[in-house]
Amino acid sequence: MLPGRALRCSRGTHQPRIQAAASAWAAGVVPQGFVPLSRAASYHQSTRMASVAAASFPSAAAAAAATAASPGGAPRDPAALWRQIASVYDKAQVSGACSKTDTQVEMCRDAGLGVEFVLRVATALKAKPNGPPQPAQDKAAAAPSAPAPAPWRNPFSPPEPELTVGPLGPTGTHTAVLNKFNVVAHHVLVITNQFRSQAEPLHGADLAAALEVLQAMPEGGVAFYNCGPESGRSQPHKHLQVVPLPFMDGQPPRAPVDGLVEAAAAAGPGGGAAPLQPLQLRQLPYQCFATQLPDSPSPEQLGAAFDKLLQLAFPGYSYSPPPAMAALPPGASPTDAATAAAVAAGSVSYNVLMTRQWLLLAPRRTERCGPLALNSLAFAGTILVRSEEELGFVREKGPGSILAEIGVPW
């Protein structure tokens, strides 16, 4: 625990809290604070989504129809997209296509950060399949006398029809898919239709597609991206994830770290930072960079904002696809575990968070702290623990100290 850091933890049982807001969407009432999303630009070197899932499963076809962009590439109706997310989720839960683990929630206030962390306790969590092993584990497969590399199937190419919500972006460059193993209802994956590496930086169209889902969620949500070997990523195919707010029933629909971004913005020159102005959250014991978003940001604005944050975290960094990625045909997915691991290898690791109001990037130096393996959501103010041992570790060490250990010091 960091010196002088006080913790207060209390446990409760999580109760889902989206029905009232979802009913408002269904009735055509726009939730307070909703801002329509501007049209997205076409994605760099991408093609329209193949209709494999729609042809093979009726509900996927209905999803595509329900979320299709209107003529001229205008944004689809957020309420219709949310209804489709909820409908596909309900059907997948009944059929067993996706599995939700019930959790208890424990609040743990870190006085040093001034953040009320949400700890999700899921001791019965079903283990989800891991992605391909790290390249270092595949050295034997590369030896001349070794057997052929183990086959690998990309779970996103194509995604399971029963989990497919529909296309995102006016030209269908991304697809909304439900998370198969979830601890939060309506956990959505935003995947690129063509294979791209999870080590690749985000583009404006990636962020615009995720923002489209955020705008559809009745009370907003948190989108996140795990990039690099120490980020907590599990799949090599480029994807963002989006979970609804609030993280706990009875809380306001805000990420627990909202106040940190607001405080950094308020401390800007002239009494407040302008939208899209890069911010350094120097009040934290680890590097963290953010920017406030304007109403209806364009994909170009989103992409430029992300690039500025990335350069603050890694000055002079430029992504170069690994040789394994360059060797693949454009848009083709790896078919063996060794190649899948190699294409996802990256020289930097970081986590990205986005709400309707802000974008945040935190560089990583390690994935683990004690028994915990952590991804982007830890920096949003929520931590998943799978055992009493892990829960005790978080209580003892404190969330702020954990983030300081997995993050990069100033």
Automatic annotation (TrEMBL):
Residues 146-161 have a biased composition (Pro residues). It holds the Pfam family ATP_transf. Coiled coil: none annotated. Residues 283-409 form the ATP adenylyltransferase C-terminal domain. GO terms for biological process: nucleoside catabolic process; nucleotide biosynthetic process. Residues 128-170 are annotated as: Disordered. Residues 136-145 have a biased composition (Low complexity). GO terms for molecular function: ATP:ADP adenylyltransferase activity; bis(5'-nucleosyl)-tetraphosphatase activity; sulfate adenylyltransferase (ADP) activity. Residues 77-261 form the Ap4A phosphorylase 1/2 N-terminal domain. PANTHER family: DIADENOSINE 5',5'''-P1,P4-TETRAPHOSPHATE PHOSPHORYLASE, DIADENOSINE 5',5'''-P1,P4-TETRAPHOSPHATE PHOSPHORYLASE 2-RELATED. This is Uncharacterized protein. The lineage of its organism: Eukaryota, Viridiplantae, Chlorophyta, core chlorophytes, Chlorophyceae.
